[in-house]
Amino acid sequence: MVAVADKVVMVTGGRRGLGAALVDELLARGARKVYSTARSAYVDERPEVVTAELEVRSAASVAALAEVAADVDIVFNNAGILLPAPLLTGDFEDVTMTFDVNVFGLLRVARAFAPILAANGGGALVNMHSVLSWLAGSGAYGASKAAAWSVTNSLRFELASQNTQVVGVHAGFIDTEMVSAMDLPKATPAEVAARIVDGLEAAATEVLTDDVTIAAKAALSGPVERLTFPTAR
Predict the structure, then answer these.
(1) Residue 160 carries which DSSP code?
(2) Apex 182 CA angle, 208 and 198, nearest 5
(3) What distance lies between CA 114 and its chain's CA centroid?
(4) Sign of the CA dihedral 150, 154, 160, 163?
(5) Which of 13, 20, 127, 158: CA 20 to 30 A from 41?
(6) pLDDT tier at 181 (50, 70, 90 boundaries)?
(7) Pairing relation of β-strands 8-11 and 124-128?
(8) By CB neighbour count within 10 A (0-12 exposed, 13-18 middle, 19+ buried), where does 178 fall?
């Protein structure tokens, strides 16, 4: 179990949406310092927040951040991208960018910060996935989140020896800019952030943040034809 109080935490993609809600939740629970990253520089006036530029597609950018944030105890891999298009007809560059951010970006951050977490006692790595990790019909985004889920499960095994708690988070639809065009029931970022940190502090290995996600996970044992995003039917 990793408690947030008095810890140094990093949230990638912390400028807006769920990332911003995670920063707020971590501060409310007593985090001593929160590094919050975005692709471009921005200002947060709260003294506990250290903002930093990060491009997860760049190994050099990730390495530069690791040098600055060598005191981190907990890493939230939250940065992600959604470029909706079918796999067969969408721009292939969008497909490769989606995987570069959502899968390889997550792994770049994990590789750079694993030694830091080990040096600081183990800590935790929290990776954001999606209910679409398990549902077909969401193009490269869902495929990338499925790959990220697999990466997280392997990282949990590889990081166990250094006492790093690895948490995979699956969420349905959150009321953020990323899915603003989808006319579906959505949870607030604050609600989801609280559930994620609850799971972390309860020593969870996986956090399912809503009923839709719980139902999708349960359906994995059934026929694969049923694992389809509703709007893709």
Answers:
(1) G
(2) 20
(3) 16
(4) negative
(5) 127
(6) low
(7) unpaired
(8) middle
Candidates 141, 153, 135; CA nearest to 212 is 135
> Is residue 124 within 8 Å of residue 2, measured between CB atoms?
yes
DSSP-derived 3-state class of residue 181: coil
**What three-state secondary structure class fits 196?**
helix
Given the structure tokens 């590094």, which residue do they identify? 35
> Scanning the structure block, which residue is given the tokens 């994990």?
110
What digits encode the pLDDT tens for the residues 25-74?
999 999 999 999 999 999 999 999 999 999 999 999 999 999 999 999 99
Q: Are 32 and 73 in contact (CB under 8 A)?
A: no
Q: Which of 24, 13, 14, 91 is nearest to 57 (CA)?
A: 13
Q: Give, in order, the Cα–Cα distances in Å from 27 to each of 53, 145, 193, 194.
A: 20, 28, 12, 12
Which residues contact residue 96 at a Cβ distance below 8 angstroms, ignoring those fewer than 6 apart? Answer: none
Alpha helices for the chain (secondary structure H): 17-28, 59-68, 92-99, 106-119, 139-159, 189-201, 211-218
**Under a CB-based contact definition with an 8 Å cutoff, are residues 131 and 216 in contact?**
yes
The Cβ of residue 33 has, within 10 Å, a number of other Cβ atoms equal to: 19
Give the confidence band of 187 by pLDDT, cuts at 50, 70, 90.
confident
| Alpha carbon distances (Å) from 207 to 93, 171, 190, 217 | 31, 8, 15, 11
Query: What does the alpha-carbon distance between residue 65 and residue 16 come to, in Å, rounded to a whole number?
Result: 19
pLDDT surpassing 70 at residue 91 = yes
Q: Are 122 and 165 in contact (CB under 8 A)?
A: yes
